[in-house]
Amino acid sequence: MRVIVLGAGIIGATIAEALAQRGADVAVLDMRGPNRGASQASAGMLTPYIEGEADSPLLNLCVRSLSLYDSFVARLLEVSRGGIEYARTGTLEIALDDDGVAKLLGNKVWLDTIGVESEWLDGNAVRSFEPSITPAAHGGLLTLDHGLVGVTSLMNALVHQARLAGATFEFPVEVHTVAQVGDRVEVTSVDRTWTGDAAVIAGGSWSRRVRIPGVPSLPVRPVRGQLLHLQWCEGDQPGRICWGPHCYAVPWSDGTVLVGATMEEVGFDEGTTVAGVNTLTSAAIELLPHATGARLDAIRVGLRPMLPDELPAIGPFAAAPRIVAATGHYRNGVLLAPLTAELVTGYLLDNVRDDLFEITTPDRFAKMEGGSA
User: E-strand spans in the chain?
Assistant: First the structure.
């Protein structure tokens, strides 16, 4: 099967690698190249019980995808040229006032109810367990199943393995139309047309710009996220993801910490701002006082693709079943990548329509006001 994947971010690369490993003939087209979109500004957090609310469809998606991560990373490590930083060290959510304590204790009750291992730490226990945390902490909730993954190293492994399996990556390519013609698809840019048996729309925030004749455009919109890349220079570096009221901090083995993230509706503006840096710096110092001595190595920016219901669009279009959506993952692209690849690969190669397609179908937006064919 010849499959054309539009997008070389974490979603497109994971799908391409999975398809190529199964023997599909895969071509990946991208405007800029691998890891140049939202992926470059991802903190690599695997935190479904923070991102998803109780009984929400998003939570179910995230939990199922997290369950795939150990085997997903292990398989890539067996054949990867380099390492992939991956740790299931948990998350520590911090309360800085009584309202925060009440909220986290409520989350603790919920986690206990659904059988997820967690631990409540009072203020003294928090500072003993995680000395980097502010002395003003009233308490903290440790969720043990959470973790992190190095996105750059993961992307490098995925692209390398996809290429070894025969996938090709072409960029810069800006596709404007994908059409199903009988039992084939045609993918068209300004000056070229590719043909295949199926196409996957994994263009992130740019997916709305791809026209599919007879199908309303997906209402994906970009949400800018700025992150600070800090070199930790003094005091204790956090030992796990720490999540405060106004930011999160993700520690890495090279002595750096990522602090994020802003959420800004500014269209396709990928610029950094003084306001964004100031907001994150203040929040980081509030949570981790020794951040005052950290060196600011870089400011990362990415446009997260968001759909109106904050759920991804994964699955075939009813009017063009050989064209599959895999976009709109918003803040959870890295977390949801293994599941998305499993769903898309199962559909294209095994004709399996997972029950999750009822939730993630791109056709759920067909009747939205403003959709255009």
Answer: 2-6, 25-29, 45-46, 86-87, 91-95, 118-122, 139-143, 147-149, 168-170, 175-181, 184-189, 193-196, 198-201, 221-231, 241-243, 248-251, 256-260, 295-306, 313-317, 320-327
